[in-house]
Structure formats: structure tokens, C-alpha cells
């Protein structure tokens, strides 16, 4: 027997074994599913199934959500949450009831939307991507929820939200900060906002004085709202899979907020938290910051030191203007530090101060004619408050 014929026999024998193995496995599979069917147990569900129990529903959903059918843009934060247990938990934790109008931002293809429609009176979904809007319309129409759903095809940061009771949403990561600002500072009245956010962002939002993640974002939000951690969500529960995990938080507006000018508060916290681990004494001794606050105080015309120096200048003092300015700055710096000493905060770091302590300090500054203003002229009120 030649080597080639010997090899051919081995191949035929191997092929015969493979065919026999496939036949046995096929028979086993058929018998297994027959037994399972008689037992009354439901068929297996794919981890991406979201609301139907039948195979046809699964195939249809895959056709709707696959990237080859609808390209998802990571740059737009388009990561679809597909874990049915997580979706159900979000709806349950939100506390939505049959009389509620729910605002959903970034509904995508509707995995969360259809669940909200099942329990809410009405859902208002704000979606900027017209492709997603079309997909959502098609999906909802097939379930008989048309009359309960209103879709606004617009940028959520520019849209004018109508009255709503709750916010429940998987927020696109790129607009988390300005969108949270819009909700809590935009004058809306709602029971709570249950938001799925990037875990790092949620951690910063939840931080308290003394925590390593405590920051200006937490300070500003907690001025007007309470933030509660609900649960963490794995990045594997999204399609496409993002680079980071997520967290769900619930935000509730405080029934009463401090009487403070918000624009000045944001400018004040921006000054304090520019270097959050630097002492306030060091921050308010910086020549650039002192000069900036001095110029703003001159505009108000309230600062006594400035008025007094102007009188000396008008009396014929020939001192160079730059020297006068240097004297102004020196005196003004002493005034700033004196207020910090009075408040007992000269050696304190912003990262360890509560909102009450910060508000008290701002009040002392204002009483001395010292005001705060953001010189950078931020794009809008929503984008400026968090200081990211």
C-alpha cells in the first residue's frame, strides 16, 4: 500500500467518524428539546432578549439592533442597554406609576421605552438621531403604544421639556454634565430622575466632603438636589460594549433651596475648586485672582479701600499708576485673607468643606463688597456649572 493510499483511508475513516458524531448529537438535541417541551419549561432565552419569549421576536429584535442594520455611533454615546433584568430593575427603581408622564432622553431603539410604556400613562422620548426615531416608531407601533408615546426629534440640551413627573433615561455619556444641570437648575419640577450614567461620573456626583472624588460637580448639584446610588451596571450589558462600566443614580430636587445667586455661586465654587486640594488661603493670595476680584469690586463701587485710594489719586498724588495698582492689590489681598481668618477657613481645603461652610464664606465676602463672576463667559448655563 502506498503512502498516499494509506492517507486516503485515514481521511475516509475520520470523515465517517465525524458524520456519525454529528448524527448522534443531532438526535440528542431533538430528544432534549422534546423532553423540555413536555416539561412545560420555557425555551432558552438569549442574553440580548429584552421583552419577547418567542424565537421570532428574538430574530426581529436582532434585525433592529444589529450594527449592520443600524450603525451605532460611539461618538454620540449610542450604547444600547440590552440586559432585560437591568432594564426591568431600572423601571422598578424609578417608581413609575400608571398616572405618570415620563421623560426619557436618548431612547435609542426603545429597549427601555417599551417597558416604560407598559406601566406609565405617557412617555415623552427625546432623540436627536432620526434613524433611531424611525426605528422606535416602528417598534412601538407593533405593540399598540402609539397614543402613549410622544417622540421629540431634537437635541436634548436645546429642547424645551414640557411638564413631566419623572425622568428615566440611559444618558449619552457626552452630555451627562450639562443635561444634569439642565434638569436640576432648569426650573423643572419633577419627583425624581433615575439616570444611567458613566460610573466615574456617577461616583463624582455622589461624592461627599472629604472623599477623594469630591468636586465642584457634587457641590453644585447638592445645593439643590439629593443624589442616591441605585446600582452598578456592567459594560457587557451594552451593545456596542463601551470602555467603562455604568451606574444608576436617582436625583430628587430639594423642596427648599438656599437663597443664593446661582450665577455667582458657580463662579465662587469655580474659584475655590480650581485647585480643590490647595488651601483657601493659598488660592486667595494668588495675584491674578486678587486682581480679578479687585477689578470686579471696582465695578460694584462698594469696596471702601478702592474708594479711599481713588481719593488719594485725585488729590494730586503723582505716584505711577502701576504702583497704585500694586498697592490696591496688596490691600485687597489682606482684606480677602482677613475674611478667611474670620471664617476660620484660611488653612482649609475646599475638598473638605460642606455646602453650608462654603455658603457662609460667600456671604462674608458679599458683605465686604466682594463679588464673583465667571470671566470666561460660558457657552450656556447648563454647560458652565459643573466645571469639568
TrEMBL record:
Keyword Transmembrane helix appears in the UniProt entry: no
Class of enzymatic activity (EC top level): transferase
Cellular component GO terms held in the UniProt record: mitochondrion
Keyword hit for Metal-binding: no
Binding site for S-adenosyl-L-methionine: 79, 81, 106, 127, 155, 170
Domain of life: Eukaryota
SUPFAM superfamilies: S-adenosyl-L-methionine-dependent methyltransferases (SSF53335)
Keywords per UniProt: Methyltransferase, RNA-binding, rRNA processing, S-adenosyl-L-methionine, Transferase
E.C. code: 2.1.1.-
CDD domains hit by this protein: AdoMet_MTases
Domain Ribosomal RNA adenine methylase transferase N-terminal: 86-255
Molecular function via GO: RNA binding; rRNA (adenine-N6,N6-)-dimethyltransferase activity
Entry's family note: Belongs to the class I-like SAM-binding methyltransferase superfamily. rRNA adenine N(6)-methyltransferase family.
Protein name: rRNA adenine N(6)-methyltransferase
UniProt source species: Mikania micrantha
Organism taxonomic ancestry: Eukaryota, Viridiplantae, Streptophyta, Embryophyta, Tracheophyta
Amino acid at each position: 500500500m502506498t503512502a498516499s493510499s494509506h492517507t486516503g483511508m485515514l481521511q475516509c475513516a475520520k470523515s465517517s467518524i465525524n458524520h456519525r458524531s454529528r448524527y448522534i448529537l443531532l438526535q440528542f438535541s431533538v430528544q432534549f428539546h422534546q423532553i423540555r417541551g413536555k416539561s412545560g419549561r420555557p425555551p432558552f432565552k438569549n442574553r440580548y432578549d429584552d421583552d419577547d419569549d418567542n424565537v421570532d421576536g428574538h430574530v426581529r429584535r436582532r434585525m433592529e439592533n444589529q450594527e449592520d442594520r443600524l450603525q451605532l455611533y460611539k461618538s454620540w454615546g449610542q450604547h444600547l442597554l440590552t440586559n432585560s433584568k437591568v432594564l426591568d430593575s431600572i423601571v422598578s427603581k424609578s417608581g413609575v406609576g400608571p398616572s405618570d408622564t415620563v421623560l426619557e432622553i436618548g431612547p435609542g431603539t426603545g429597549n427601555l421605552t417599551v417597558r416604560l410604556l407598559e406601566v406609565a400613562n405617557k412617555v415623552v422620548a427625546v432623540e436627536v438621531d432620526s434613524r433611531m426615531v424611525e426605528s422606535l416608531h416602528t417598534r412601538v407601533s407593533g405593540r399598540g403604544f402609539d397614543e402613549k408615546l410622544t417622540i421629540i426629534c431634537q437635541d436634548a440640551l436645546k429642547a424645551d421639556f414640557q411638564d413631566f413627573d419623572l425622568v428615566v433615561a440611559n444618558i449619552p455619556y457626552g452630555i451627562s454634565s450639562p443635561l444634569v444641570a439642565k434638569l436640576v437648575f432648569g426650573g423643572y419640577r419633577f419627583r425624581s430622575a433615575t439616570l444611567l450614567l458613566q460610573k466615574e461620573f456617577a461616583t463624582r456626583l455622589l461624592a461627599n466632603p472629604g472623599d477623594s472624588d469630591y468636586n465642584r460637580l457634587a457641590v453644585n448639584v447638592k445645593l439643590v438636589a439629593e443624589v442616591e446610588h441605585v446600582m452598578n451596571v456592567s459594560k457587557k450589558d451594552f451593545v456596542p460594549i463601551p470602555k467603562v462600566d455604568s451606574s444608576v443614580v436617582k436625583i430628587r430636587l430639594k423642596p427648599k433651596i438656599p437663597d443664593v445667586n446661582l450665577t455667582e455661586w458657580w463662579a465662587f465654587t469655580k474659584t475655590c475648586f480650581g485647585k480643590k486640594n490647595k488651601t483657601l488661603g493659598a488660592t486667595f493670595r494668588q495675584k491674578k485672582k486678587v486682581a480679578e476680584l479687585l477689578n470686579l469690586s471696582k465695578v460694584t463701587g462698594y469696596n471702601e479701600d478702592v474708594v479711599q485710594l481713588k481719593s488719594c489719586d485725585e488729590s494730586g498724588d503723582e505716584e505711577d499708576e502701576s504702583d497704585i495698582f500694586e498697592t490696591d492689590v496688596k490691600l485687597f489681598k489682606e482684606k480677602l485673607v482677613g475674611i478667611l481668618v474670620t471664617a476660620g477657613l484660611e488653612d482649609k481645603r475646599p475638598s473638605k468643606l460642606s455646602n453650608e461652610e462654603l455658603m457662609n464664606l460667600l456671604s462674608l465676602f458679599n458683605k465686604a463688597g466682594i463679588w464673583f463672576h465667571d470671566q470666561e463667559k460660558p457657552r450656556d448655563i447648563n454647560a458652565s456649572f459643573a466645571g469639568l
